[in-house]
Specification:
Radius of gyration: 28 Å
Strand order of the largest sheet: 7-8-9-10-11-1-2-3-4-5-6-12
Helix content: 25-40%
Structural class: alpha+beta
Distance between the termini: 85 Å
Shape: globular
Length: 338
């Protein structure tokens, strides 16, 4: 802060003027050099988003805390008796949350530890899932009261399911380097993502982060996703001879999307996305005005840090509990639905 009560100084001598000019020039050169260095290393919002996307594709471990809700209130107003969306229980919103950590650096022994909650109100249920030593360990927590009589004996207990090697590798191997490069290059040239505003920086999970609001051009986004899907159809195979990504079905279903926007937070230090909010509006029936609103919120951290997941001390193998229930099916049952 400049000193107060500055008095008018006499005109400086030529010697003082020379030194003043030299100091000003040095300050100017230093400021220009600092600006040039900063400008070279600072990223524009678009460049920052792409750097965060690349970091996301390269992630092999971390932790997350995400929630997603689906709001059917508009449809409930139009059709209060509808069972299609409300299952006869008067539901107008369904929520899902997932919180925990993962480590897929070793594809032969990936690790997951997640707390899960899903449902709405009286129909909510909780659970936990661990994956370690090539086994899945689910645990059912709170269940709806109406299901306690039927499923109460399975709550608050760990069960175990072995994971076959091929199943494990296929489900967790992620994208190949060539696939990552194609996705990155396609996204780099994508015109669907639009930064609307850079907001005040915020601290997320202890990291100072740049904060942006964004919108999506749905037509350009659809074209970008289809392009990636068509490429993946040349590198991967779906089940039973079906394409890995059904571009025709996606093109038709995407017509229900009316709006996509949200906010994103990217850490200043290492350019990782550590928070995201995404809002979608879908129109199940294009002839009607009501929409389904999907809201996603997630925070992320622990990027590429080791994760330790310990198998439960006690767990019951799946076949010991459910083997008798499925035994009649071993010989094959021909069921005809009428």
């Amino acid at each position: 802060m400049p000193p107060e009560n500055i008095e008018q100084a006499p005109l400086p001598s030529s010697k003082k003027t020379l030194w003043s000019l030299i100091i000003l020039v040095l300050i100017g050169i230093g400021g220009w050099a600092s600006y040039a260095y900063y400008s070279q290393n600072a990223l524009t919002p678009e460049e920052l988003i792409m750097a965060a996307n690349q970091n996301f594709l390269d992630l092999e471990s971390g932790n997350l805390d995400v929630t997603m809700s689906v709001d059917f209130k508009d449809i409930a107003k139009e059709d209060p008796e509808s069972n299609k969306f409300f299952l006869g229980f008067g539901m107008t919103e369904v929520a899902f949350s997932l919180k925990g950590s993962y480590d897929t650096r070793d594809l032969e022994n990936p690790k997951y530890d997640f707390d899960i909650e899903a449902g709405t109100g009286m129909l909510s249920r909780t659970g936990r899932l661990r994956v370690s030593d090539k086994k899945r360990y689910p645990r059912v927590g709170k269940i709806p009261a109406i299901a306690e009589e039927m499923a109460g004996q399975f709550t608050d207990k760990w069960f175990s399911f072995p994971i076959e090697g091929e199943e494990l590798e296929e489900s967790l191997r992620g994208f190949t380097e060539a696939e990552k490069e194609f996705i990155y290059d396609t996204a780099l040239n994508d015109q669907s993502f639009k930064i609307l505003e850079e907001l005040a920086p915020e601290t997320v999970n202890g990291d100072l982060s740049r904060h942006f609001s964004f919108g999506m051009d749905r037509v350009a986004l659809k074209a970008c996703i289809i392009k990636i899907g068509e490429y993946l159809n040349t590198t991967r195979q779906g089940e039973d001879g079906e394409p890995y990504f059904d571009t025709v079905a996606f093109d038709k279903e995407f017509e229900a999307v009316r709006k996509i926007d949200g906010s994103i937070w990217i850490s200043k230090g290492d350019n990782y996305m550590n928070k995201m909010i995404l809002n979608l509006e879908l129109a199940p029936d294009p002839k009607k005005s009501e929409v389904v609103r999907i809201n996603f919120s997630g925070t992320f951290g622990g990027f590429n840090k080791p994760v330790t997941v310990v198998a439960p001390v006690e767990s019951t193998p799946f076949e010991e509990v459910f083997g008798d229930m499925f035994a009649p099916m071993e010989g094959g049952i021909d069921l005809e639905l009428k």
